Amino acid sequence: MTRDVRAVAALHATFFAAAGVVTLALDAPAKGWAVLALVVAYNVGLPLTARAVGRRDWVLLWRFLLPVSIFQIVPDWILATVVGTLDFPVIGGPRLDDAINLSMGGMWVPPLFIVLALARGSAPAAAGLAVAVFLGSELLAPVVDLWEPTGDTTQVAGVALYVLPAEAALGWAAATAFALVGAASHGRRVLAALATSTFYTGALVVAYFAIDVAGWSVTV
Hints:
It comes from Paraconexibacter sp. AEG42_29. Keywords: Membrane, Transmembrane, Transmembrane helix. This is DUF6989 domain-containing protein. The protein is mostly helical. The chain has one domain. Helices cover about 70% and strands about 5% of the residues. The longest helix has 28 residues, at about 185-215. About 40% of the residues are buried.
């Protein structure tokens, strides 16, 4: 394992270990503020670590993924308040519309960074990796009280099935967008991040409709 990989692996191991301790050991409202602090620390530490080991490509990846993560508040908000299939427990810290914890605005960066870094520019690989990585997230989130599926959805082991094809689409879209605008201007990266999150929002709604709503009957 090279020095750069060791450094970024250590950062992620530290982040996930600290997150596990915080979410299991603390109660609201301390839990929510601690999660927010960890998310901020990660998003400061990742680009600093990448610069320290000479990985400009990882810095560019973080610059793309941070706005993606911020825009991901919107689909989470829609699922929580419009579709009614996602719940964010009150754990402390700032919330949007009393529906979603604002720490989610930076929480998408770690899994997406892992997916895109491992995919090495391959959109199909990113789609497959996204399913695996986000499946782990969906399994763990209710255990540590970060979010949980709700409403009348098809679930296996506590995971709403409609999110998995949408998260595969997110991995594919993020890898495709980053390949196109990774080294472009800040404005173009933000627009590409918005397009990626919007694509994911549409994929969520379509997957939810296809799996949990549509009757698939034809009348003549």
